[in-house]
Structures are given as structure tokens and as C-alpha cells.
Amino acid sequence: MISKYLGFDSDYIIIGLAVLVVILLVLWIVNIVQIKSLKKNYKVFMSGKNAKTLEDTLIKRLDEVEHLLKANAANEKNIKKIFANMKYTYQKIGLVKYDAFHEMGGKLSFSLALLNETNDGFVLNAVHSREGCYTYIKEIIDGNSVLVLAEEEQEALDMAKNSRS
User: Fold this and answer.
1) Coil vs helix vs strand at 89
2) Which of helix, strand or coil describes residue 134?
3) Pfam families under this entry (predicted)?
4) What is the chain's alpha carbon radius of gyration, rounded to the nearest angstrom?
5) CB–CB of 116/89 below 8 Å?
6) Where are the alpha helices (DSSP H) in 2-148?
7) Could you read off the pLDDT of 88-133 as tens digits, one per residue?
8) For residues 138 and 44, what is the distance between their CA atoms, to the nearest angstrom?
9) By C-alpha distance, which of 62, 85, 65 is closest to 73?
10) Alpha-carbon distance 85 to 73, whole Å?
11) Residue 150 — very low, low, confident or very high, per pLDDT cuts 50/70/90?
12) Residue 118 near residue 90 (C-beta atoms within 8 A)
């Protein structure tokens, strides 16, 4: 009687409801299979351990993580300190060996330039002769010397300034 007022046959309603019941039945079966699989995995996870040992394991791991975080913070602080100190260490080197008097028969004299990151440092010049060895040092500030540099000293300084820091 309702079907006459709505304008369609009641057979279509019954078929639609039957299809809906079949779909719900299939979904119910899939759900049961998934729950059984989840229960099986849960039993495997919990087998051999009680809640107390699991809690102890978690607390131990959290303590280890906290210790690692503190150690990491200390390492970062130390690395920053090392980088700050590196600016003042001699890290650029230039070395030129030469024969100061041409009668010695060997390159026994040398000029050594040592510079830090900001090109501050010194040039050490050692002149070797028959009478002895004489060493001179000249201060370098911002890549330049207040005193006049010999050719070999300037070459060592240029070598140091162009070296990779």
C-alpha cells in the first residue's frame, strides 16, 4: 500500500535490504578476522613478560634517553667552545726554504709563517750561515707586518694567507 503512494514496487526495497544485509555480513566477518589477528599479536607481545617487568624496561629506557640528551647537550657546548678557541689557533701555514748566501750548498735557511683564522700570527725567519744560525720573528696583524718583510718572508706569508683554514 505504501508502494502505491511512493510510486515504486516493494520488491525493489526487499532486494535492496537483502544486498545491504549481505554487505554488513561480509564486513562483520572481516572485522572478526582482524580482531582474532590483533588478539594473537597481543598474546605474542605479552607472553613471558608481566606488566611489572615491562614497566621496568620502559623506565630504564627513558632514563637512558634522558642521559643521552644530557650528554648531547654537553657535547654541543664543548663543540661550540672548541670552535670559539679554533679562531685563535695557528691553522694557516706557509714555509719557504732557501739558500741565504748561495755558498752553503743547500737550502738550510727558511721562512715560516703561522696565521690564525683572522690572519694574525707571525713570520719566523731562520738564516743559516757558516758562522751560525740567526732567527728573526715578525708579528703579523690582519695579514700585514709593521716591519718590512724579506722576499722569502713575504712569500711564506702569502702562502699562509692563501692556505685553506
Assistant:
1) coil
2) strand
3) DUF4446
4) 42
5) yes
6) 2-6, 10-46, 51-86
7) 899 999 999 998 887 666 788 999 999 998 899 999 999 988 888 8
8) 77
9) 65
10) 19
11) very high
12) no
Which set of grid coordinates corresponds to residue 129? 750561515
Are 157 and 123 in contact by the 8 Å Cβ rule? The answer is yes
Angstrom distance (rounded) from CA 122 to CA 105: 28
Residue 89 grid coordinates: 689557533
Residue position matching grid coordinates 657535547: 75
Residue type, position 15, single letter = I
Three-class secondary structure of residue 48 per DSSP: coil
pTM, 2 dp: 0.56
Neighbour-count burial for 16-48, b at 16+ CB within 10 Å, e otherwise: eeeeeeeeeeeeeeeeeeeeeeeeeeeeeeeee
Residue boundaries of the structural domains of the chain: 11-84, 92-162
Rounded distance, CA 139 to CA 119, Å? 11
* Closest to 156 in 3D by CA, of 99, 97, 89: 97
